[in-house]
């Protein structure tokens, strides 16, 4: 039922799921968190692959979700390790804070530490278009079934000898490459780091707040559907 | 090592056996004492494909790792198999996409900007944007379309000469490929000989070169000289490099010969070992075949005929990799038998993944190609014996892909079925016709020479055999192709008894033939 609701509200595209299906679980999915739509979208994408999934956000959630997190001790690393051992996958929204324009904030080291501690593969997940579809000031999703994408990167395996900061850096880079696909295309996003360019549009020279917001909510310019008379 | 093949002698206890007949799957009872040649069972597909491809790219055969060959500022062309090889999955990305993504990730990390992707179509139809997207995936296609991803054009005016055929015809190849620094060739094979020549350049040549290379006279000369070990091909020099500077790096992927998806895997199993689920699936398929109209049956094949497993990935220098791939496939797939039979039986399925039926010329060429290059190393039927095929040979041609086939069937085969006569009287007319060139270049049609080459490929088998009979074949089109049609196997054996006697040795080659996708 939630899957149907998601498909009625937005047009989801899922890429890279084969990286997950080819390996046996459990996994630690580490995603950016621009919107309230994110958790349902990832759950919907993984419904046939990962049957058991709990989600945790580094920034404490408010309302009933926050109470549930607290009651189940989901914010404790040992509890999450026990869940992973029992075969349950974890979806972590690992940004330390939520940005006002949906861009990626620095990641907490906890996700990488959990991966190192348990040896479970970390899968970076980039969520595109969800901020535009459901920004924080809206209660319902933007009409017209906006296009949103869930991009799964290749799993990162971390062992006991790895530094959590280095692992966090590679997770952040994978998510940033995914986010850059929207503006630069699949090849362009992967090509940029070779020149030392930062794929993120927002880094480098700081932009005024209104410009960032304008960009984050702009309708994508690419053709959304094939037109016959073009 | 997979489970080896074996020869079953049919007795009263043998259950009815699976026989493909176009889009139908029949369960046929064979005569007592007939032999059934089961090929070795397919290997399990590789589970962790990314790892296997990555390992092949990083530890190639007789070559530096791919990352070391990719340099900033170099001109790189990725050449990939077209739909002559099956699309390996309906739901997950195709294996070509998986390989190309990993190759491109390495190219991006090396800072390569000048990348182009070309489908190695030879004289086959050029791929549509939809086909390219299906093979490469949405993201790769969107990154390079519309200017940097395309199909090879055999009628292109800007081809580059890189050698000469024995008759003096220049070898013209795709200019982009010849001018590249590195050509990465992604090749797929489902069975022995299915991969084509060692040189990928054979699939990237111009129409004039292809005509000289594939002409009937050249074919007969090649088969006459095939016993000569010193026989060399003009393309031998183009295996590892094309032209002066284009170095070739190949990634060879082998697939299971038949779909291994859960819905259709039972078709390649041995009938005696069918589980209850297999029997239920078979009963369901039989019922669907009876009830559904032909068009819907094609749709059914499209759903069930996907899910090919990947059995090996090897990368490196083409002259070193190609023999490894061939040997691997031969070891996995060639069936052994004692002596050639008087009568051989073959089923010809419709391709599962292209969504249409085979036209009669293609079906006949595919079936007859099995006589010499099928599941066995030697012809399964003796010289002068009879081959019985199962295919409806419905005179239906794809309106977009087959305009040259339509005219070949209507104008050429009504005059003669002799390849020598056809080659002399009609080939030039078709090759020079501007209309065929136009539809080849703009409407995804097969090239005008394609039906000729298909027919020539069947010629050695026709010469080897006494009779060719199609069970369930459309009477008119079977006669036009120069064969006989029968409505049942009993009738076909009765018709064959004139030449092979009343108690012939019968061998049924179980399973699908070499290529069940579009015929090359």
Automatic annotation (TrEMBL), chain A:
Record keywords: Acyltransferase, Lipid biosynthesis, Lipid metabolism, Transferase
Keyword Acyltransferase attributed: yes
Region (Disordered): 190-209
Phospholipid/glycerol acyltransferase domain segment(s): 27-130
Pathway assigned to this chain's UniProt record: Lipid metabolism
One Pfam family cited in the UniProt record for this chain: Acyltransferase
Compositional bias ranges of the Basic and acidic residues kind: 198-209
GO biological process: phosphatidic acid biosynthetic process
GO MF annotation list: 1-acylglycerol-3-phosphate O-acyltransferase activity
Name of the protein in question: Phospholipid/glycerol acyltransferase domain-containing protein
Species: Subtercola boreus
UniProtKB/TrEMBL annotation, chain B:
Name the record gives this protein: LarA-like N-terminal domain-containing protein
Protein origin, superkingdom: Bacteria
Annotated ranges, domain LarA-like N-terminal: 37-186
Signal peptide: none
GO molecular function term, any single one: lactate racemase activity
């Amino acid at each position: 039922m939630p899957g149907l609701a998601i498909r009625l509200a937005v047009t989801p595209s899922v890429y890279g799921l084969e990286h997950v299906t080819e390996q046996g679980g459990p996994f630690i999915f580490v995603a950016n968190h621009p919107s309230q739509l994110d958790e349902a979208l990832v759950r919907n994408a993984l419904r046939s692959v990962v049957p058991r999934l709990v989600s945790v956000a580094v920034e404490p959630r408010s309302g009933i979700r926050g109470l549930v997190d607290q009651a189940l001790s989901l914010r404790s690393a040992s509890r999450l390790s026990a869940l992973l051992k029992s075969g349950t996958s974890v979806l972590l929204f690992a940004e330390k804070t939520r940005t006002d324009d949906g861009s990626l904030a620095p990641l907490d080291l906890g996700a990488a530490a959990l991966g190192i501690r348990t040896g479970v593969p970390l899968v970076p997940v980039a969520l595109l278009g969800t901020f535009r579809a459901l920004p924080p000031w809206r209660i319902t999703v933007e009409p017209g079934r906006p296009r949103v994408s869930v991009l799964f990167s290749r799993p990162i395996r971390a062992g006991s000898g790895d530094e959590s900061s280095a692992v966090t850096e590679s997770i952040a880079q994978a998510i940033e490459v995914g986010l850059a696909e929207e503006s630069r295309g699949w090849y362009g996003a992967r090509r940029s780091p070779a020149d030392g360019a930062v794929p993120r549009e927002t880094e480098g020279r700081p932009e005024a707040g209104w410009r960032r917001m304008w960009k984050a909510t702009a309708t994508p310019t690419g053709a959304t559907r094939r037109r016959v008379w073009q | 090592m997979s489970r080896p093949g074996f020869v079953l002698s049919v007795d009263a206890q043998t259950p009815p056996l699976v026989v493909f007949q176009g889009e139908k799957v029949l369960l046929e009872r064979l005569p007592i004492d007939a032999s059934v040649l089961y090929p070795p069972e397919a290997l399990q597909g590789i589970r962790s494909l990314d790892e296997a491809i990555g390992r092949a790219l990083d530890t190639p055969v007789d070559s530096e790792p791919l990352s070391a060959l990719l340099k900033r500022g170099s001109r790189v062309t990725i050449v990939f198999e077209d739909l002559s090889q099956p699309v390996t999955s309906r739901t997950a990305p195709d294996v070509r996409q998986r390989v190309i993504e990993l190759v491109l990730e390495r190219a991006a990390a090396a800072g390569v900007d000048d990348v182009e992707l070309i489908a190695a179509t030879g004289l086959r139809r050029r791929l549509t944007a939809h086909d390219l997207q299906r093979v490469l995936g949405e993201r790769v296609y969107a990154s390079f379309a519309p200017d940097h991803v395309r199909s090879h054009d055999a009628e292109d005016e800007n081809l580059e000469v890189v050698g000469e055929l024995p008759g003096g015809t220049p070898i013209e190849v795709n200019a982009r490929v010849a001018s590249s620094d590195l050509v990465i060739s992604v090749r797929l094979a489902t069975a022995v000989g299915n991969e084509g020549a060692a040189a990928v350049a054979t699939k990237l040549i111009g129409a004039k070169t292809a005509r000289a290379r594939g002409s009937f006279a050249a074919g007969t000369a090649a088969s006459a000289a095939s016993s000569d070990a010193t026989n060399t091909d003009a393309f031998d020099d183009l295996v590892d490099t094309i032209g002066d500077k284009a170095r070739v790096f190949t990634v060879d992927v082998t697939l299971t010969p038949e779909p291994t998806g859960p819905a259709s895997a039972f078709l390649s199993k041995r009938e005696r070992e069918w589980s209850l689920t297999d029997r239920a699936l078979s009963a369901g398929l039989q019922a669907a075949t009876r009830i559904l109209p032909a068009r819907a049956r094609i749709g059914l094949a499209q759903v069930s005929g996907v899910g090919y497993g990947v059995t090996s990935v090897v990368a490196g220098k083409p002259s070193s990799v190609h023999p490894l791939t061939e040997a691997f496939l031969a070891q996995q797939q060639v069936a052994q038998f004692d002596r050639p039979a008087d009568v051989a039986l073959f089923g010809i399925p419709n391709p599962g993944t292209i969504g249409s039926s085979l036209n009669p010329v293609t079906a006949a060429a595919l079936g007859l190609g099995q006589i010499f290059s099928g599941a066995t190393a030697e012809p399964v039927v003796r010289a002068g014996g009879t081959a019985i095929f199962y295919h409806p040979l419905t005179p239906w041609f794809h309106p977009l892909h087959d305009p040259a086939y339509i005219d070949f069937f209507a104008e050429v085969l009504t005059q003669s079925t002799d390849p020598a006569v056809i080659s002399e009287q009609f080939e030039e007319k078709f090759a020079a016709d501007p209309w065929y060139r136009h539809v080849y270049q703009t409407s995804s049609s097969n090239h005008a020479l394609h039906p000729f080459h298909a027919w020539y490929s069947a010629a050695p088998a026709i010469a080897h055999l006494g009779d060719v009979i199609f069970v369930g074949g459309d009477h008119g089109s079977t006669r036009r192709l120069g064969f006989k049609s029968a409505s049942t196997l009993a009738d076909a054996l009765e018709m064959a008894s004139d030449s092979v006697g009343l108690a012939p040795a019968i061998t049924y080659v179980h399973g699908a033939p070499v290529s069940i996708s579009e015929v090359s």
